[in-house]
Amino acid sequence: MATIKIMLDAGHTGKTWNAGAVKGYYESATVWKLHNLLAEELQKYGFTVGKTRKTIDESMDVSVRGKKAKGYDLLLSLHSNSADASTVRRVACIYQTADTQGTWDEISRKIADRLAPAIADAMEIPPDPGNGLRWKNYSKLAGGDRDGDGKKDDNYYGVLHGARMVKAPAVIVEHSFHSNPETCRWLMNDDNLKKLAAAEAKCLADYYGLKLPEPVKPTEPAPVTHTVVRGDTPEKIARKYGITPAELIAANIAKYPRMTIDLIVDGWVLTIPAKGSVNPVAPVFRPYDAAVVPANGLNVRKGPATTYTKLGALKCGTVIRILEEKNGWGRILYQKKEGWVSLACVKKR
Ligand SMILES: [Zn+2]
Fold it and tell me: What is the CA(27)–ligand 1 centre distance, in A?
């Protein structure tokens, strides 16, 4: 899919153009900052972003800036407005005038109608004391025939006219009135500008059907393993990894049935479990030797119950090593495999 390209225009040249109601506010500096923040937010959604000027001090005619929209899907020119009455406080998006040459004017209007309420929300604009509106969009005709096509349908605003000349939709965004002290103060807070940029990017992404990429899921950490070397004991290894021997054995008994507190073999690759995976007070079972008691011998089974398959039998007096106890049964090594015998039929030696 081709990316959506948005050209951003910071409304004015220099750092001190258009002072606001609060000392230290300048429209040119604020919208320059805002257009950089908006570029970052748009890029998160995958938009390709251009800027009409390279530096804040670069001067460029407004219609030339509008023509920078050539090849772009949209141009936004960012501003804050000014009025005689300091009470005026509303958002305005100025869209392109209606024409019959393409659909740029329609796109411009649709985007204006989405952006203005989103910005009014982000800026927490109350209803305007004059007309009760939080935002009011409009377009303005030049009154003459700027492009010489015989129709008086051209844009009054140079940046919108320039974009129209290169067949691109464009919107002028007035971020409320810097002649209003509250708006001015709000715009002087960088966190607010970030919030504003995020809201505008979200609004445009919704219009173009773009979503933020799914956050990359943190990959599961590879399990920690320890390869047994000469001199290792379960207790030593457990201490090294800050776990208990019982935890170490529990995590490895399925893979190494012969493993006990006394027995590990060089080259075994032990899984080191998370700390606390086994009740820390669980005592470590110590293997012991026992002799088969019944005169007629003792069955060895596959598991710790009479329901398990019989693997064979041991003669009376045979000494076996009990490696684990479970429900009255003892795990032994029988013909190099795991076997289980009833503990009632053996005597500890
Ligand atoms: Zn302006």
Answer: 7
Contact 181, 84 (CB under 8 A): no
Domain C-terminal end among 155, 189, 208: 208
The reply to whether 127 and 165 lie within a common domain is: yes
pLDDT value, residue 99: 84
CA of 280 from ligand 1 middle (Å) equals 69
Q: Exposure pattern of 180-191 as b/e (b: 16+ CB <10 Å)?
A: bbbbbebbbeee
Residues lining ion ligand 1 (Cβ < 5 A) are 11, 79
Residue 213 lies in a domain: no
In this structure, the answer to whether residues 113 and 31 fall within a common structural domain is: yes
- Cα angle 107, 113, 118 (rounded to 5 degrees) comes to 125
Distance from Cα 12 to the centre of ligand 1, integer Å: 6
Residue with tokens 């005619």: 61
pLDDT digits (tens, 9 = 90+) for 274-300: 888 777 666 677 889 999 999 999 999
C-alpha 226 to ligand 1 mean position (Å): 66
What digits encode the pLDDT tens for the residues 69-96? 999 999 999 999 999 989 999 999 999 9
Q: Distance from the CA of 249 to the center of ligand 1, in angstroms?
A: 72
The structure's pTM equals: 0.65
Q: Is the CB of residue 160 less than 8 Å from the CB of residue 94?
A: yes
